[in-house]
Specification:
By secondary structure, the protein is mostly helical. It has 2 domains: 220 residues, no CATH class; 196 residues, no CATH class. The protein is built from 20 helices and 2 strands. A two-stranded antiparallel ribbon has the order 1-2.
Length: 473
């Protein structure tokens, strides 16, 4: 029998084996290090409602179902489903998987810990898919294999990504996959599939609307007028058929209804002022403003209601809306004039959304990290690794710190990494209460955004001196 030497194994094979090991083994260890927090408990309610009561109940029943056990028996908040039909479809699949392989036979009750395990497993699988999609996007941009594997690894082995998906249980990886898929299909030159993936992305979560609209502008520039008309028509039909079960069960206007509700919540702020703080944990522009203009310190800089007055009768919330609108318009104009920089601009608008707007949590920045990593071709090496490093560190530390603050006092959540007796948890719990950390993290995040914007200008000048770039048709 002929032996195989380690040196004969290709770098791609080594990376693939490492990726599978990290996905199937290491991440599973993190599943038991986090508690069944409120966000994850609400997700288990959605999965249960879908497989037990069906699609029609998803947007209604969780509004009346409290997760009282998550609050120590006190029904403080319902488990309303806030996402679009695309995410609802994914949760329906999660429900099917649970019912087929994990659900106990009647009359035994479903186990929320097992449902949470399946949700986390989907997070890990989609995280691996995202790393592969990043590599494929960079391949279409003709970057060498070594660069592609390093870039994919920066996402797949990122501690912030692992913490958010495997410990906390947030589903950012799932909605991100649809955006990366749309980008890759566009790079491959499949307009119908690219437009379909983009439409599905817009129906995942509200935060994906901004990058999706910018990506749509790029598709309008990349493909010819006739191709876009034909492709968009077919993609609308395809998307309609995909979301038809939800539209028929709920309402034909379901996708629009979700976006209208998001507009009322995230733009007009037609809800309780205390549910719209300056930040839920994201170290942003407004945590700095709250310190400089408001004289606040520690967690007060984050929990200040964004509807407080600031300058000239305008609130933090209104100022943030105006600032982000300006940033979005600038990115839109840039995509039209320089479509070759679209990936870079997608990273700018996504990161800008979470740093310029108010009321975001640290885990919301995960898509921005992925888009920065996918922008390797237009970013200089120093800027590339600097921005990825800054965002990875600030997301991980601020998310861990906020989780420790929220859960260590709670008897049902203070387990594993969130136990108050854990040395690491005791340390990070103090970070978000420390002015030096909040200020440093906010400055670093804003510096990362400025570096990305500066790189856009640098590439713009380079392409102008080279005669510009003709969009692909």
């Amino acid at each position: 029998m002929r032996s195989t030497r380690l040196g004969s194994i290709s770098p791609l094979s080594i990376w693939a084996m490492s990726a599978l090991f990290a996905t199937l083994v290491i991440n599973h260890l993190f599943f038991n290090m986090g508690s069944l927090n409120y966000d994850l408990r609400a997700a288990t309610v959605w999965v249960y409602v879908l497989y037990r009561h069906g699609i029609p109940a998803l947007y209604h029943l969780p509004l009346t179902v409290s997760v009282a056990d998550a609050w120590g028996g006190i029904p403080m908040q319902e488990a309303a489903f806030p996402y679009g039909p695309t995410m609802a479809s994914v949760f329906l699949v999660i429900g099917w998987v649970y019912r087929l392989f994990f659900a106990p036979p009647p009359p035994l009750l479903p186990d929320p810990l097992q449902i949470a395990y399946v949700i986390r497993q989907f997070n890990v699988i989609f995280g691996l898919l995202n790393a592969v999609l990043i590599s494929k996007i960079l391949e279409e941009q003709h970057l060498p294999l070594r660069t592609r594997l390093i870039s994919a690894s920066l996402f797949l082995f990122n501690p912030a990504v692992w913490f958010v998906g495997s410990v906390w249980g947030q589903t950012q990886n799932i909605s991100l996959a649809f955006l990366l898929l749309a980008i890759w299909l566009g790079e491959k030159g499949h307009p119908v599939l690219a437009w379909t993936a983009a439409l599905l992305t817009s129906m995942t979560r509200d935060q994906m609307i901004a990058p999706t609209l910018l990506l749509a502008l790029f598709f309008l520039r990349k493909f010819s007028f006739g191709t876009n008309i034909c492709s968009l028509s077919w993609s609308i039909i395809t998307t309609f058929l995909i979301v038809a079960p939800f539209s028929l069960a709920e309402s034909p206007t379901l996708p629009l209804d979700v976006h209208v509700h998001a507009y009322l919540f995230h733009v007009l702020a037609l809800n309780d002022r205390w549910s719209n703080p300056v930040s839920w944990g994201a170290l942003s522009l407004w945590t700095l403003v709250a310190r400089v203009a408001g004289g606040l310190s520690g967690l007060d800089r984050l929990s200040l209601p964004a509807m407080e007055l600031h300058v000239g009768g305008l609130t933090y919330w209104q100022l943030a809306n105006y600032a982000f609108t300006g940033l979005a318009l600038a990115c839109a104009v840039a995509v039209v004039l320089r479509p070759s920089l679209y990936l870079h601009l997608l990273a700018v608008i996504t990161l800008g959304l979470f740093l310029v707007k108010t009321s975001f949590a640290a885990f919301h920045l995960i898509p921005a990290v992925a888009l920065v990593i996918a922008s390797r071709r237009t970013l200089g090496p120093s800027a590339y690794y600097l921005v990825v490093g800054i965002l990875s560190a600030t997301i991980f530390l601020s998310m861990y710190s906020m989780a420790a603050i929220w859960m260590t006092p709670h008897p049902f959540w203070a387990v594993g990494l969130f136990s108050p007796t854990n040395t690491a948890t005791a340390f990070v719990q103090k970070l978000m209460n420390a002015d030096w950390f909040v200020t440093s993290g906010s400055v670093l995040n804003l510096s990362a955004l400025l570096v990305l914007a500066g790189e856009v200008l640098r590439r713009w000048r380079t392409e102008t001196s080279d005669g510009g770039v003709t969009p692909q048709t």
